[in-house]
């Protein structure tokens, strides 16, 4: 067991990747602002959520280096969002079915 | 750093780890466990926000109209730039470039403070407009919606306040990491603290990526009288 080597496997992300992610994030910010000025009815909210989720995923994968991390880290990160999903789904299963509250 | 071929003799290797690689993995994994609690912490507030947004869509659209979209948008860009400089600080640490590390950490701190300064200008304006729930409240542009807009503004102050508190803690941590980087403690073999600092900083950026559309950009599709 002890002879197993844990060499610090430094993965240095190229500068161009960081800059590409940065421009995608800045573009996403302008896009989410621009879309909010157009009346798309019910679609405004899902589009804003989708853009924010893509931006968050870019930050997590590239700036937070999850894309090059160990499988154990992947499990913890995915687990975090699964629990967030449980929090939302169970809460909404209650509140969104209380028809009398919506009025 | 080639003279330190024996990793077990590295001054920052804690005695309970076999080597620096194992120590690095343990610290980033530990940080992700902490960030899981943070995701659920902010998730609870966001969930309550959505429950009330679904119940009071008009008040939420009116509340978002009271926000300064230009300041909010500029602040979003400021935080994204600070995330880029933070990522580049980690990259410089990995490459053993002390000067680049120090410069990027200073820039990250400056952008973080810029965000907080713009936030304070917005807070002051909201106070003046009477949008602070409590005794100072005197906003009445939509008299029928006042109680519900107060609810929206309660979410606004708590969510942006919690976020700003995280930013202040982040700038404090940044000063500590800057001090250590200045002293040349980080390099390709040992840069865990810079990496973990970055994870925290990027998380706080992600929170704002969601707060900006949630609090500033609700389209007023629900037209009110």
Characterise this structure.
The complex is a heterodimer of chains A (103) and B (225). Chain A has two domains: 10-69; 70-103. Chain A is 69% helix and 0% strand. Chain A is built from four helices and no strands. In chain A, helix 1 (15-36) packs antiparallel against helix 2 (44-63). Chain A is flat, with a radius of gyration of 20 Å. Chain B has 225 residues and is mainly alpha-helical. Chain B has a single domain, classed as Four Helix Bundle (Hemerythrin (Met), subunit A) (Up-down Bundle). In chain B, helix 3 (69-94) packs antiparallel against helix 4 (98-128), helix 3 (69-94) packs antiparallel against helix 6 and helix 5 packs antiparallel against helix 6 (192-216). Mean pLDDT of chain B is 93; it is low at 221-225. The chains are: A mainly alpha (103), B mainly alpha (225). At the A-B interface, helix 1, helix 2 and helix 3 of A face helix 1, helix 3 and helix 6 of B.
Detail the topology: elements first, then pairings.
The complex is a heterodimer of chains A (103) and B (225).
Chain A: H1 15-36, H2 44-63, H3 71-95, H4 99-102
Helix pairs in contact in A: 1-2
Chain B: H1 20-55, H2 57-65, H3 69-94, H4 98-128, H5 146-182, H6 192-216
Principal-axes geometry of chain A comes out as: flat
Beta-strand proportion of chain B: under 5%
Q: Superfamily at the CATH H level of chain B?
A: Cytochrome c oxidase, subunit III, four-helix bundle
Tally the helices of chain B: what do you get?
6
Order of helices and strands of chain A: HHHH
Under the CATH scheme, the architecture of chain B is: Up-down Bundle
Give the overall average pLDDT of chain A: 89
For this structure, the quaternary state is heterodimer
* Main β-sheet description of chain B: none
The share of residues in helices of chain A is: 55-70%
Number of strands of chain A: 0
Structural domain count of chain B: 1
């Amino acid at each position: 067991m002890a002879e197993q080597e844990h060499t610090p496997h430094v993965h240095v992300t190229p500068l161009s990747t960081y800059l590409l992610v940065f421009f995608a994030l800045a573009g996403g910010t302008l896009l989410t602002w621009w879309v909010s000025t157009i009346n798309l009815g019910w679609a405004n909210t899902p589009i804003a959520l989708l853009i924010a989720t893509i931006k968050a995923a870019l930050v997590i994968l590239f700036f937070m280096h999850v894309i090059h991390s160990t499988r154990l880290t992947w499990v913890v990160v995915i687990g975090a969002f699964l629990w967030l999903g449980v929090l939302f789904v169970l809460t909404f299963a209650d509140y969104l079915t209380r028809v009398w509250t919506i009025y | 750093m080639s003279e330190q071929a024996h990793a077990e003799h590295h001054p920052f290797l804690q005695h309970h780890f076999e080597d620096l690689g194992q120590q690095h993995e343990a610290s980033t994994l530990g940080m992700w466990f902490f960030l899981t609690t943070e995701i659920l912490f902010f998730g609870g507030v966001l969930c309550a926000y959505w429950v009330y947004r679904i119940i009071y869509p008009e008040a939420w659209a009116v509340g978002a109209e009271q926000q300064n979209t230009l300041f909010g948008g500029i602040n979003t860009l400021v935080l994204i730039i600070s995330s880029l400089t933070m990522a580049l600080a980690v990259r410089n640490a990995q490459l053993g470039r002390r000067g680049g590390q120090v410069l990027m950490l200073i820039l990250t701190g400056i952008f973080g403070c810029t965000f907080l300064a713009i936030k304070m200008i917005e807070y002051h304006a909201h106070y003046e407009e009477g949008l602070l729930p409590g005794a100072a409240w005197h906003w009445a542009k939509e008299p029928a919606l006042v109680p519900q807009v107060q609810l929206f503004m309660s979410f606004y102050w708590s969510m942006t306040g919690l976020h700003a508190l995280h930013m202040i803690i982040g700038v404090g941590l940044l000063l500590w990491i800057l001090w250590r980087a200045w002293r040349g403690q980080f390099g390709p073999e040992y840069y865990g603290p810079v990496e973990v600092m970055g994870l925290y900083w990027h998380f706080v950026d992600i929170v704002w990526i969601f707060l900006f559309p949630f609090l500033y950009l609700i389209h007023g599709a629900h037209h009110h009288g």
